[in-house]
Amino acid sequence: MITTELDEYVVTKELNRHFDKFFEGYRKGTERRTDKIEVWISGFFGSGKSHFLKILSYLLGSSVYDCKKAIDFFDGKITDSRIMADIQVASDTSADVILFNIDAEADSDSKTNKDPVVRVFMKVFNKMQGFCGSMPWIADLERQMVKDGKYDDFRARFKEISGIEWENTREDFYFEQDNIVQALSESTRMSADAALSWYNKALRGLGTSAVGRRGLSAPGRKILIP
Question: How many domains does the chain have?
Answer without folding.
Answer: 2
